[in-house]
Design brief:
Helix content: 40-55%
Number of strands: 11
Strand content: 15-25%
Number of helices: 8
Radius of gyration: 18 Å
CATH topology of the largest domain: Rossmann fold
Largest sheet: 5 strands, parallel
CATH architecture of the largest domain: 3-Layer(aba) Sandwich
Low-confidence stretches: none
CATH superfamily of the largest domain: Response regulator
Length: 229
């Protein structure tokens, strides 16, 4: 899952980015509101974590502009402001949740996971797809009751496909959300990663629609059909 973190205090940004990275997220760090507004409109993120007190353009204005532009990416606001009226203002601007500094990293991860689940229509931290159960809190996966040992990249890929189970995910999109938009993996890196995963979990868990992308079948559902044209 790919997240944009917007925080002007670089030491705080580094700490949060490291914590989110350890929790399985790909993190792009931005330090001012204008860049956040631009990237939020032009890049494909699963969520945005944003401070309110930003240079060039404040966080609330960023959220308002993104929502006015019909950007529906879930937003978690981080702020040193604790007054309830300011929290209401943040929610009214279009934020999905609000966390007041100082906070524990575990709470940031929990709140972020919750807004992602709500945006994807998932009621539980456990994602079920392709016959697998992926626990997003523990970063574990099981299939048929058997635990699967996953690398960080393997976990990111499985979580993204499970979060979007029932949809064919194009290769370019999957690569961005596994490796990050600012990184350029080798041209066949994704295929190698999927081949390695299939050896661990079976060849049928991750499906392929040639020329379209990859998918996982939702629990109790059917495999998606590629749209022509």
């Amino acid at each position: 899952m790919r997240v944009m973190l917007v925080e002007d205090e670089k030491a705080i940004a580094t700490d949060i980015a490291e914590g989110l990275g350890e929790a399985g997220y790909v993190v792009d760090v931005v330090h001012d509101g204008e860049e956040a507004w631009f990237r939020g409109e032009t890049e494909d993120y699963d969520a945005i974590v944003i401070d309110l007190g930003l240079p060039k353009l404040d966080g609330l204005s960023v959220v308002r502009r993104l929502r006015a532009a019909k950007v529906t990416t879930p937003v978690l606001v981080l702020t040193a402001r604790g007054a309830w009226m300011e929290r209401v203002e943040g929610i009214d601007a279009g934020a999905d949740d609000y966390l007041v500094k100082p906070f524990h990293m575990e709470e940031v991860i929990a709140r972020l996971g919750a807004v992602l689940r709500r945006s994807g229509g998932h009621a539980s931290p456990q994602l079920e797809a392709g016959g697998m159960i992926i626990d997003t809190r523990r970063m574990t996966a099981t299939i048929g009751g058997r635990s699967i040992i996953l690398s960080a990249l393997e976990y990111r890929l499985l979580r993204y496909l499970a979060h979007h189970a029932g949809r064919i995910v194009p290769q370019t999109e999957l690569s961005e959300h596994v490796y990050g938009g600012d990184r350029e993996p080798d041209s066949n890196a994704l295929e190698v990663l999927i081949a390695r995963l299939r050896r661990k979990i079976g060849s049928d868990v991750i499906g392929t629609r040639r020329g379209h992308g990859y998918f996982m079948t939702p629990a109790g559902g059917v495999a998606p059909v590629a749209q022509s044209g």
